[in-house]
Hints:
- The complex is a heterodimer of chains A (about 190) and B (about 500).
- Chain A has about 190 residues and is of the alpha+beta class.
- Chain A has two domains: about 80 residues; about 80 residues, 3-Layer(aba) Sandwich (Glutaredoxin).
- In chain A, about 35% of the residues lie in helices and about 10% in strands.
- Chain A is built from seven helices and four strands, in the order H-H-H-H-E-H-H-E-E-E-H.
- In chain A, strands 2-1-3-4 form a four-stranded mixed β-sheet, with helices on one face.
- In chain A, a hairpin with a 2-residue loop joins strand 3 and strand 4.
- The longest helix of chain A is centred in the first third of the chain and has 13 residues.
- Chain B has about 500 residues and is α/β, with parallel strands linked by helices.
- Chain B has four domains: about 230 residues, NADH-ubiquinone oxidoreductase 51kDa subunit (Rossmann fold), CATH 3.40.50.11540; about 80 residues, Ubiquitin-like (UB roll), CATH 3.10.20.600; about 90 residues, Up-down Bundle (de novo design (two linked rop proteins)); about 55 residues, Alpha-Beta Plaits (2-Layer Sandwich), CATH 3.30.70.
- In chain B, strands 3-4-2-1-5 form a five-stranded mixed β-sheet. Chain B has a five-stranded mixed β-sheet with strand order 7-6-10-8-9. In chain B, strands 11-14 form a two-stranded antiparallel sheet.
- Chain B is elongated and about 90 Å long.
- The chains are: A alpha+beta (about 190), B alpha/beta (about 500).
Amino acid sequence: MNCCIPTISTRATRSPLNNLNTGNTMSSIKIKLHQQDIDKLKEVCASFNNDAGELINVLHKAQGIFGYLPAEVQEIISKELNVPLAKVYGVVTFYSFFTMIPKGKHPISICTGTACYVRGAEKVLDEFKKNLNIKVGETTADGKFSLSCLRCVGACGLAPVVLVGEKTYGRVAPDMVKEILAEYKD
Amino acid sequence: MTKHKQIRIALRNCGVIDPQAIGEYIARDGYQALATCLTKMTPEEVIDQIKKSGLRGRGGGGFPTGLKFEITRKSVSDQKYVVCNADEGDPGAFMDRSILEGDPHSVIEAMAICGYCIGADKGLVYIRAEYPLAIERLKIALEQAREMGLLGKNIFNTGFSFDIELRYGAGAFVCGEETALIHSMEGLRGEPTFKPPFPSVSGYLGKPTNVNNVETFANIPVIINKGAGWFSAIGTEKSKGTKVFALAGKINNVGLIEVPMGTTLREVIYEIGGGIRNGKKFKAVQTGGPSGGCLTEKHLDTPIDYDNLIAAGSMMGSGGMIVMDEDNCMVAVAKFYLDFTVDESCGKCAPCRIGNKRLYELLDKITQGKATMEDISNLKNLCTVIRDASLCGLGQTSSNPVLSTLDNFYDEYIGHVVDHKCAAGQCKALMKYVVIDENCVGCTACARNCPVNAISGEKKQVHFIHQDICIKCGACYDRCKFNAIEIQ
């Protein structure tokens, strides 16, 4: 990612009207894409025959490449698939899997599905917020950690569940949070 | 002793076979049903068997599966689609994931049978991107089925062709609603549209589309192999077969179970689930996810089926069962679900977009101890308006958690509003940490650990918590070794 990573707060809300007061505008981060990245993106679009119906699959691939979906990436996809930019933005902000904010090097996701909730996920989340000093949807100033909530990873037997990157931690208690973070200190 | 309560139909192969070896599935009668359908039965006969079996949609709605097949078959079009809904968005339910990871061929076989019934040569699986392992296993299974000629052109030399593609979800609960799911597959925002027309008439790309859930499909090969009579002998009068439930929450044995319809909640929770954790008291069980409701002690002996659960103010849903004990505040639980609904509402229709937000605010007010009795009656009214006026299932059922907790735990609501007390001790705003004078030895541990310096007291003197400064973080409670802090 070729940009500095500020701490930006945004919580994607599905409703377009709710988006008005979150400050989640497309110009929140300005970046310039390298030519090779642009070419890569065009290749992805071409691999789906530039078919507008494949927009979500294209966005999945693009997020796989860049880690997030900045406005500039959406602009290129809009041109290649011949879909209005507003529509692309509409889809990106609709689905919680897509993000316009770069995630941290170690993205932390706390499951707040029902099973985790009744087993105390909220306290675990509070502990992460306190230790990292960021809110949900934010990234730490050093770009190391980002915090998000997700709804059920289907591992309810291990509730409460926390994911750091690809690694899953089960039966997490608030006093385990410091230990978990320590694993990623360097 | 508990084993015989369970019958495994949908989960018959999960954990038994290697899901990445098609041979093991075939050795357990796999693809036998597809062969029987294609070589010995007409599509009408297959539909007739499924209708007679009494199978109903396992995704939550409970629509008769055979009837759905028949309607889609009767829709005239040059192209039709079979869609498998694997967008298991209901938090706390993971049966679809288990089936796709443990027995992907059962879904593939059933989709091909469905294709034969309705006259479609193309199937799509709409699967959550959150389930990478299920996606991988499904891809392997599809490849193996194609290699063996069980998918593709001219299957079993009968002239019937069928193939399946994957489509990925991107994290939107509303996409479990079939019209929203179809829009999402078309690359659009997953917003629902008004029904009719039903997808069986006009669905994916405007063509007749048969949408069924993973667990529903997994039942179909067994119905063909063992007969509709065998299947319909299991269950209750109007709900046949078995249902998979995901037991979770404050229960000793968590995980998936599959029981005949008509099993009671008591059998599920106490015999199979092993009772409540840490010897606590059972308070409620939540079924049906954000669309369902909470059932209590008085419902424990009700036989579980589609109609009984609706009569009790909840619903079957996809089969999540979250058990709660005396430490869970039911107002907070209702608020939790509303928070979910507000987050997941697509924003298209006003009752759901605005109404649920107002519902959430009312519940928040109650948990803060700032509500009045008028708020409670407003809460009730608003619930009915949202239920009656919303466009899709999400809004029509979003008030169920509130209505069912109001019905069954009215005292708790009153406790919050009138007495400003949360009996379960979960609502922070209504809690008070106080020092028990007799137990305090003045070790200063609490004062040193208080993040806002709300505790005063000299060494070896009884300490005091200043309520106006206290943020109720509970640090003092956790640190005290003398049980000298209590929550009021």
